[in-house]
Specification:
Mean pLDDT of chain A: 90
Number of helices of chain B: 20
Largest sheet of chain A: 10 strands, mixed
Number of strands of chain A: 10
CATH architecture of the largest domain in chain A: 3-Layer(aba) Sandwich
Oligomer: heterodimer
Radius of gyration of chain B: 33 Å
Strand content of chain A: 15-25%
Low-confidence stretches of chain B: 1-18
Order of helices and strands of chain B: HHHHHHHHHHEEHHHHHHHHHH
Largest sheet of chain B: 2 strands, antiparallel
Number of helices of chain A: 15
Structural class of chain B: mainly alpha
Number of strands of chain B: 2
Helix content of chain A: 25-40%
Distance between the termini of chain A: 51 Å
Low-confidence stretches of chain A: 1-24
Strand content of chain B: under 5%
Radius of gyration of chain A: 22 Å
Chain lengths: ~375, ~425
């Protein structure tokens, strides 16, 4: 609460300098719409965006924000809005694969990164500063998140052992108990093959053959009786807290909140976590006034400081390199956030990056095989 | 109208035959022909009646029939292929997909022209997605060709250039898929929804490890029937109790029955999770009493049991209310009469009371079953893998995989199955026998 006032106070204090700072902090916006509809995921993540981006921006410019928690089905809804010829969204938060689809279909606007975004505070161009996270021409990255495993630290049957590698998930002898996995083939198949002796380089070559998919499913089959399948990211933290499972996969930010905010006896396993990017896209063909407002907001909300600020409220790593050194302490808990970031070198010894291209091609077929396997 | 006027004429000839002066048609008080005057009055009444229902009609049409019709139409619609590749589709007319030979240079040239337009309009990847449903790999083929197209020599020859860009273009299967799905309408989605596929050799059943939908349809039907049955089993005694108790007590129970209606569906489902899970209230209680031991806790959630229990609870009011309103109308004197004539309690109930409550049973069962067949959020949350319904796959294809054609095909089949069951029910029980009150 006090922080909100603090942010407000800082924003107010900045106002008199507004004219002087206009060039590097916030560009004047002529003929811009007064309101914006932003689409995000709801929950703690949306709150972190409001705290770090929209509240400071609203304090500076007086723009009113409407939040729509529809990111989960953003592509479907944006496609429908486009077919109906009435796009009501101004800015949409999506994951990497969805941004690719929206960009491919011309539903998202291409961005000129070096012109539309602010340079890094170290003077680097946005293209260099965002680096690998610029996965297509429409996607403005905000965060790096990872899908990884959490486990309970108080399981009596383990006799003091704790999982140290991903493959302990498949070890029912040493680590008996239920595990939770996502009810989708993506990520599970990769993990299964890695633990079945396939190397990182060969992973997608193996997975591209029908035998490879079969092999991955067989590996998953060895623990199948002990798996609880989840479909929403909040389920694994809940299952862990209720002792329903002893280990499970979910997004690292969710585990952070179970461990540090709810103080459950849970720990994180940083091994072969799978990286994903989350960021903004701007719907194509917005009216000029709305587009001007969105671009003005984007320039502000994706600069070095603002991206680092978001990490005060959630354990996801900023997508800009220049933001990394600015990651500070959690706003309410007061703990250092850097060690909890998926981008922290300590946490990324073995990792995979979500292979958007491969999954775009094989999703339908592999999904059908996986669902048939689950139903058996 | 036609029949009415004919009747009018025959009536007229009767009267003219019976009476003396044949002085033309019968007149009303204002001098107009009686028939026209009557028709006018009737028409005004009809228009008024129509105007009264018109808002509802328009509302239903705009918000229900049209969107659903549009959605169902997507299950056969395939405009995207002929629209994106018009000249290629035409050039492919003469190519025989049965042969293993590749189509000739004119087809490749047409493809080059079509794709140049499509890449500009950003429709090529969407086309790739559409064809990827039938042949995995089309998605990347289209995305790849969009990048390579600019580098190609516009003078040709294109066949070599396409194959050099991606050797997939030399696979006959790619062209067979393109040819098979080049029409404006397709059976592809509906076949997929039935675990079948269209190939050059005709319609084939998919290999066993790819079949999911038929068994899901069956499971949806069987589990919905199960839920309906349990609702009846639990609801019948409660409805009976409601009619036989004094008004004050029965009102209280009725409120308890209705109470779940005022609670969010999600909250109720989440509550079942707390109760049913392995470390949940019910298991804890059973372990504490000593009925089961700690190592063998019951698995009652994330499977078909969880779905059945949670859905039975949620749908129970839809069974109790029609039962209650029908039972209220059965005079208690019938049972007394049966008993005074020597029937035992059971005979009186089974031979006299139960047959009279059948219309309520029918109404409740139909309501429960049709609601259950379309359920989606409860199975998703408590169904695990063995307790999910066909609606969960429809939702997946609508919002995640974005295969709207397949979602529409599944929805169409579900609608057909439900209508068929409704028709069978009407044949066996008779829909006139269903009463909501």
């Amino acid at each position: 609460m006090s922080l909100r006032y603090l942010v407000g106070a800082v924003a107010l204090a900045a106002l008199p300098f507004g004219a002087a700072m206009a060039d590097d902090d916030i560009a004047p916006c002529d003929g811009c719409a007064k309101a914006m509809t932003v689409v995000s995921w709801g929950g703690a993540y949306q709150k972190s965006q409001q705290k770090a981006y929209s509240e400071p921006y609203a304090a500076l410019t007086g723009t009113t924000f409407t939040w729509d928690e529809s990111s989960n089905e953003a592509v479907a809804k944006l496609r429908a809005q486009n077919e109906a010829g009435n796009v009501t969204w101004d800015l949409v938060d999506v994951e990497g694969p969805d941004s690719q689809r929206l960009c491919d279909e011309g539903l998202a606007m291409p961005i000129d990164f070096d012109k539309d975004l602010a340079p890094g505070n170290d003077g680097s161009t946005p293209t260099a500063d965002f680096g690998d996270s610029l996965i297509n021409e429409c996607f403005i990255p905000q965060i790096v998140f990872s899908t990884t495993f959490g486990y309970r630290t108080d399981v009596a049957e383990w006799n003091g052992a704790v999982p140290t590698s991903l493959c302990d998930i498949f070890d029912l002898e040493t680590f008996p108990g239920k595990r939770s996995l996502e009810k989708r083939p993506k990520k599970n198949l990769e993990w299964a093959l890695l633990c079945d002796g396939v190397s990182k380089d060969d992973l997608y070559d193996v997975l591209s053959t029908p035998e490879g998919v079969e092999r991955a499913l067989n590996k998953l089959g060895t623990i199948r009786d002990q798996v609880v399948w989840w479909s929403a990211g909040a389920e694994t933290p809940q299952l862990l807290a209720d002792k329903e499972v002893v280990m499970g996969s979910t997004y690292n930010g969710r585990l952070f909140s179970v461990i540090e905010e709810q103080h459950q006896p849970v720990a994180m396993l940083w091994d072969w976590e799978i990286f994903d990017f989350d960021g903004w896209i701007v719907p194509n063909n917005l009216p000029d006034d709305r587009k001007a407002r969105v671009m003005n907001f984007l320039r502000f909300a994706t600069d070095t400081q603002r991206l680092a600020d978001q990490a005060k409220w959630i354990a996801y790593g900023p997508a800009r390199n220049s933001s990394q050194p600015l990651v500070g302490k959690h706003a309410d808990l007061g703990i250092e956030m850097a060690p909890h970031m998926p981008t922290n070198p300590e946490n990324r010894k073995n990792y995979l990056v979500n292979n958007i291209e491969w999954w775009a091609d094989n999703q339908d077929e592999v999904e059908a095989k996986f669902q048939a396997w689950l139903a058996k | 109208m036609g029949r009415a006027s004919r009747k009018g004429t025959s009536l007229m000839t009767d009267t003219t035959a019976g009476r003396v002066p044949p002085s033309g048609p019968m007149l009303a008080a204002d001098g107009r022909p009686l028939k026209a005057s009557l028709n006018r009055a009737m028409r005004a009444q009809k228009i008024r009646a129509f105007l009264l229902v018109a808002p509802l009609l328009v509302f239903v049409l705009v918000t229900f029939i049209l969107p659903i019709g549009d959605m169902l139409f997507r299950s056969v619609e395939n405009e995207i292929v002929p629209q994106t590749l018009p000249t290629t589709v035409e050039a492919l007319q003469d190519w025989d997909p049965q042969t293993d030979a590749l189509p000739g240079e004119p087809v490749f040239a047409a493809l080059h022209d079509d794709l140049t337009v499509a890449v500009e309009a950003k429709t090529s990847t969407r086309l790739g997605q559409r064809l990827n449903y039938e042949y995995s790999g089309f998605s990347s083929l289209m995305r790849g060709v969009a990048r390579e197209l600019k580098k190609m020599d516009p003078a040709g020859p294109f066949k070599e250039q396409f194959i050099a860009a991606d050797k997939k273009w030399s696979e006959p299967a790619v062209w067979q898929t393109l040819k098979l799905f080049s029409g404006s309408y397709t059976s592809g989605y509906l076949l997929n929804a039935l675990d079948m596929q269209l190939t050059v050799d005709g319609i084939k059943v998919k290999p066993a490890q790819d079949r999911i939908y038929v068994s899901l349809f069956l499971r949806t039907m069987v589990m919905s029937l199960g839920v309906t049955f349990f609702c009846l089993l639990l609801g019948y005694p409660i409805a009976y109790l409601l009619t036989s108790l004094p008004l004050r007590t029965s009102n209280l129970i009725l409120i308890l029955v209705l109470l779940p209606f005022w609670t969010s569906l999600l909250v109720r489902t989440a509550a079942w999770k707390v109760l049913l899970q392995q470390q949940g209230v019910i298991n804890d209680l059973l372990v504490w009493i000593g009925i089961i031991d700690d190592a063998n806790r019951l698995v009652m959630i994330n499977n078909a049991t969880g779905t059945t229990i949670a859905m039975t609870h949620i749908l129970l009011p839809f069974m109790i209310l029609p039962l209650f309103s029908v039972m209220k109308g059965i005079p208690p004197s019938y049972m007394r009469a049966a008993k005074s004539l020597g029937a035992s309690d059971w005979t009186a109930f089974w031979r006299v009371y139960f047959p009279q409550s059948i219309p309520g049973v029918g109404a409740g069962a139909i309501l429960c079953f049709i609601l259950a067949v379309g359920y989606y959020i409860t199975p998703e949350l408590v169904g695990g893998t063995s307790g999910v319904f066909i609606s969960n796959r429809i939702a997946y294809h609508i919002s995640t995989s974005l295969n709207w054609g397949l979602a529409a095909a599944l929805a169409t089949l579900l609608l057909i199955v439900v209508l068929a069951l409704y028709w069978t029910y009407d044949r066996i029980v008779g829909i006139d026998n269903v009463k909501l009150g």
